[in-house]
Amino acid sequence: MKKKKVLALLFVLQIIVVKLLSFFPEFTERWYSNGVYPYISGASRVILGIFSFSVGDIIYGILIFMGLRWLWQRRKTWRHAYKYNLITMLATLSVVYFLFNILWAFNYHRVPLYKKMDIKKEYTLDELTAFTKKLIVKTNAMQISITENDTIKVVVPYDFNKIYSHSFTAYKTLSQQFPDFKYKHESVKSSLFSVPLSYMGFGGYLNPFTNEAQVNSELPLYNLPTTTCHEMAHQIGYANESEANFIGFMASVKSNDPYFQYSGYSFALKYCMRTITKLDKKRAKSLAPLINKGILGNFEESEQFNKKYQSFVESIFKYIYDNYLKMNRQKDGLETYSKFVGLMVNYYSDKEL
What we know:
This protein is mainly alpha-helical. The chain has 2 domains: about 110 residues, no CATH class; about 240 residues, no CATH class. Helix content is about 65%, strand content about 5%. It has a 3-stranded mixed beta sheet, with helices on one face. Strand 2 and strand 3 form a beta hairpin. Helix 6 runs antiparallel to helix 11. It is globular.
C-alpha cells in the first residue's frame, strides 16, 4: 500500500513537471525530440516491426479486459475500501502517464513546426482561394493521368502491405529535401480495431507505448496512403495533428507513385474546400464545378463510408478526443486537424505544388 501511495503522489508531481516543460519547448526539442526520443522510438519499431500484427492493439485488449475484471471484482468494496481503490487507480494512472510521456507524448511540447520551417500561421480567404484553385488544377491532372477520364473515380490497385511499403519509400524521398522528416525502421500495421475505429470516426492512431502506426483498414483505399503517412509523422515525433497532416501530405505528394500523389492532393483539396465552405459558402459553391467528377466520386465514397459507420459512439469519442487534444497544447481540439491548411497556404505561396 505504501508504494501505491508514493506512485499516486508522483502522478500529481508528473502533471506539474509536464506543465512546466510546456514553457520550455527548446529544451524539449533538443533533449527529448531530437535527443532520447529517436532511440526510444527506433528501438520500439525495430523490435515490434518484425510482427505483422498489431502488438499494441493486443496489449490494449488485455489491459481493457484486466481493468474491467478489476472493477468487477472490486464492485462491492467501494463503501468500505474506497480509499484503497482510489489509490490503486491513481497509482496505475501514474505508471501509465509516466510511460505515455517518456515513450512519446513529450513531443507535444516541442518547438512548433511553423517556427522551425519559418511558415506564417495566418492567411486570408483570397489567399486560400488562390491556393485551392492551384490545388484543383493539380488534383484534376492527377485524376485524369490515372483514369484517363475526368468522370471516373480513382481506384487504388494496391493491398495494405504495398501501401505501407510505398509509404516508407515516400518518406525516403521526402527526407532527401527535409532531413528532419527522416523515417527509419518501418512499423505500420492495420489495426485489429479497424471496425471500432470506423464507428469512432478515426482513420488510425499511433500507439504511444509501442510506437506502431495503426491504420484503419476499413477506410476507402484512395485515402489510405495519406492517412498512413500521417500516422508515420506521429512516429517520428510530430504529435500535433495539423503538423502530422502537413507532413503526411508532403510525403504523399513527394512520392513517385501517382496514387500516393492523388491521395495527398485530394486529401488537401477536401480540407481546403471544407474550410472555404465555413468561411464563405457562396465562394465554395463557385469552386465546386471546377473539380473533376471523378474526384467528387471519391469524395462521395468517403461520405458513404462515414454514413455507414455513423453512430452516437463517434460523438462520444470525438468529445473525449477533442478535450484530450486541448489538454495537450492543441487548444483548437479536433479543429487542429484543419489548421494544416494554413501551413499549406503559406508554405506553397511562392512554391510549386
